[in-house]
Design goal:
The protein is α+β, with helices and mostly antiparallel strands and about 375 residues long. The chain has one domain: Double-stranded beta-helix. About 25% of the residues lie in helices and about 25% in strands. It is built from 7 helices and 17 strands. It has a 9-stranded mixed sheet, covered by helices on one side. The chain has a 3-stranded antiparallel sheet with strand order 14-8-16. Strands 10-9-13 form a 3-stranded antiparallel sheet. It is globular, with a radius of gyration of 21 Å. The structure holds 2-oxoglutaric acid and fe (ii) ion.
Length: about 375
């Protein structure tokens, strides 16, 4: 039996409007060089282990270079008491190495740091790549769309012609899905940089949850239990989903067993390191035990607004977070089918970090 698609009149006119809009975007768009493409030829080998040195270790804890107390033009504001700092008056493209080291520490301490009023005229792809690589080796996403000729720039594009994460694609009630990016990697990401070049007038915020605070709030017996455990994080469902959608998988997925509580190498702080996006089970527990504990932790992370921050994007905003101590979610609350609601487009630069270390030297493991 052949399958047929019936398009209603409304859908058909919406489609025409959408196609006209796409054409306009692609011909006149200021950031056309950053539009999503999908290389379907590159096949990448497995990631290799590397020695990681956290830039935050070299930083002056007082941050005199990044946030000098005698410069009223540089303004840092806490977005909540627990997580998130907003900075105005600094251009990321002009930071010195001591400033970048202090920024690495600030991101680890505050979870996410949001830079406003960035001048995108100042940046080239090469310069941004070098900026990211200062913090760690650049990750190439195993399945995502990217910027042309730059696999390291993972594309974020929610417009009418790309419904990658749009609500209509799945059957869930919400688009909220907290995760730590590609946490299945053996040395998963640390500092991660998201630049949105185009933002809708309203909607499309991003939220982060502090995994440091999430850990700190647990009772001593639960902390003690979790500190001795590892959990499995898997890249397989993402790769299988991509294959099912007919997309190219450029690197075969892996699984890792990471400590459920990890210690940040620069701050020494403990953070929960499980997330609903990639964590599948707690190693060594019975299925029902693992499900019950993960359900408790996922609910804690996703529902505790008192350890989250929700950031509204403005033109010129760049957000930098530490995937080791936070979980985050896109909030896709606007209608991507409706050109009037604007375009949301940008890219993510993801740096890889340490092999997670838990309490009492508990280390990640994999086959
Ligand atoms: O688009 C967003 O708000 C965040 C998307 C995301 O999860 C990411 O860039 O890692
Ligand atoms: Fe993400």
């Amino acid at each position: 039996m052949s399958s047929t698609t019936t398009i209603t009149e409304t859908e058909s006119s919406l489609l025409k409007l959408t196609l006209a809009y796409d054409k306009e975007i692609h011909e006149q768009y200021k950031y056309a060089a950053y539009l999503p493409v999908y290389d379907e030829t590159t096949k990448l080998p497995a990631l290799q282990p590397f020695v990681f040195q956290d830039r935050g270790l070299a930083a002056d804890k007082e941050k005199p270079n990044l946030l000098p107390k005698d410069n009223p033009d540089i303004r840092a504001t806490s977005l909540t008491p627990v997580i998130g700092t907003e900075i105005r008056g600094l251009q990321l493209s002009a930071l010195t190495d001591p400033q970048k080291d202090e920024l690495a520490l600030l991101i680890a301490e505050r979870g996410v740091v949001v830079f406003r009023d960035q001048d995108f005229k100042d940046i080239s792809i090469a310069k941004q790549k070098a900026f990211g690589a200062y913090f760690g080796p650049l990750h190439i996403h195993p399945v995502g769309a990217h910027v042309k000729d730059t696999l390291e720039f993972h594309n974020i594009y929610l417009g009418p012609d790309n419904e990658y994460r749009a609500r209509s694609k799945n059957n869930r009630l919400t688009t909220v899905g907290y995760h730590s990016d590609v946490s299945h990697e053996h040395q998963p990401p640390g500092i991660t940089i998201l630049t949105l070049l185009s933002v809708p007038p309203t909607g499309g915020d991003t939220a982060w949850a502090s995994q440091t605070a999430a850990y700190a709030r647990l009772s001593p017996p639960i902390k003690a239990l979790l500190e001795g455990l590892r959990a499995e994080h898997s890249g397989f469902p993402q790769a299988e989903g991509a294959r099912r959608d007919g997309r190219w998988v450029r690197r075969e997925p892996v699984k890792s067993e990471h400590p459920v509580v990890r210690v940040h190498p620069a701050t020494g702080q403990k953070a929960l390191f499980v997330n609903p996006g990639f964590t599948k089970r707690i190693v060594g527990l019975r299925d029902e035990e693992s499900e019950a504990i993960l359900k408790l932790l996922f609910k804690h992370i996703s529902l505790s607004q008192d350890l989250q921050v929700r950031v509204r994007w403005e033109e010129g905003t760049v957000a930098l977070w530490d995937n080791r101590v936070t979980a985050h979610t896109a909030i896709s609350d606007y209608d991507v089918h409706n050109p009037q609601e604007g375009l949301r487009h940008g890219f993510r630069i993801t740096t890889l970090a340490d092999k997670p270390t838990g309490v009492d030297g508990l280390e990640s493991a994999w086959e």
